[in-house]
Amino acid sequence: MKITRRVLAFSLLSALLIFSVVGGSADRPAAKSKYRVFVGTYTAKTNSRGIYSLQFDTATGKLSELGVAVKTPDPSWVAVHPSGKYLYAANEAGKASSVSAFAVDAKSGKLTLLNQMPALGEDPCFLSFDKTGKYVFIANYTSGNVVVFPIGADGKLSAATANVRDEGKLGSNKERQDGPHAHWIAESVHNIVYVADLGLDRVIFYDFDPAKGTLALHKPVVNLEYAFPESSVVLAAGTGPRHIAIAKNGDHHQFLYVLGELDSTVTVLGDWKDGIFSSLQKVSMLPAGFSDRNDAAEIALHPSGKFLYASNRGHDSIAILAIDSAVGKLTSKGYVPTGGKEPRHFAIDPSGKYLLAENQFSNNIVVFKIDAATGGLTPTGQVVEVPSPVDIAFLPQD
């Protein structure tokens, strides 16, 4: 039987999983009621002292502050290891940037430094784990490179096994797209890693070798079912891809929801025609007539797969979008103020009942109840003060 490129693409898509980055980790914890919540912050020119520990009860929606989990400089992105034993932080400090490994005391919420490695680039802003939990991927924003560090059995980081700088034609925004700016990295299946590069207006594919921990720009191989026929997807000029949410529908479609920081949009990629991603839709995250400054920040799928959420800094809101699961397209369902300034990040709790919005400039986390039928958000009245919050990671408690 002759195998066409379309069949190859469909074979790939039938294997791909729902993949949504929530709370600093690509793997959603098993459903429980009580969670430890770790909050990454900026410490420079703020009152923050590092990573904070809170407790969240999904049965009641109560968020309780516990205090400082560990003192560490500018831990702007934190992620709990799939084992639950370790937490990793990107210490975003320009040329002095590093990546830290911590042991987690689940009972007290305290963190103990295991070791720290140079980030091998400037301003790491995102990290995630490979599917085995043996490696951590780092996206360095300012220097535009992505790095892989092995994780030992004791949780410590070893010397990097990969350090690759994104390449391609620069975007049209001269101020923000002056070079490659890797902003998000995560592994899909079949050892293919996606990178969102804000400076290049591209989603880039890398081949990951789990035996060596290396990355190489994807080179399609004919007759392999999982081969991508391209090494990147180019978005509209000036989009500025920041983060991505990835969803699978049935056995034959994969949809990528790409957040455009610079033009405050969500681009829907999918419908593989002859094995190539095509742009299905581009929607604004802002209400009609809004013309003030805005920078899009975070994007996340609801566990039900029915809704997509994205945050606006400037408009200071969460955009709510309904998903047509058959074709992947979006319909705006409105906007909800976050109750503060500059919602750099938000996280949907693992039960899917609540959304926690982190308002960086007003130093608080606001809890919203999610309507399972409409996707609507209603503030619960729960507001916890945390200095300069920029990322949340959940850890289930026994």
SSE blueprint:
Layout: H1 5-15, E1 19-20, E2 34-41, E3 50-57, E4 62-71, E5 75-80, E6 86-91, E7 98-104, E8 111-118, E9 124-129, E10 135-140, E11 145-150, E12 162-165, E13 182-187, E14 192-197, E15 202-209, E16 214-217, E17 232-234, E18 241-249, E19 253-260, E20 265-273, E21 276-284, E22 295-301, E23 307-313, E24 317-323, E25 330-337, E26 343-348, E27 354-359, E28 364-370, E29 377-385, E30 389-396
Antiparallel strand pairs: 1-18, 2-3, 2-30, 3-4, 5-6, 6-7, 7-8, 9-10, 10-11, 11-12, 13-14, 14-15, 15-16, 15-17, 18-19, 19-20, 20-21, 22-23, 23-24, 24-25, 26-27, 27-28, 28-29
Q: What would you say this structure looks like, in words?
A:
This protein has one helix at residues 5-15; strands at 19-20, 34-41, 50-57, 62-71, 75-80, 86-91, 98-104, 111-118, 124-129, 135-140, 145-150, 162-165, 182-187, 192-197, 202-209, 214-217, 232-234, 241-249, 253-260, 265-273, 276-284, 295-301, 307-313, 317-323, 330-337, 343-348, 354-359, 364-370, 377-385, 389-396. A 5-stranded antiparallel beta sheet has the order 1-18-19-20-21, covered by helices on one side. The termini are far apart. By secondary structure, it is mainly beta. The protein has one domain: Methylamine Dehydrogenase, Chain H (7 Propeller).
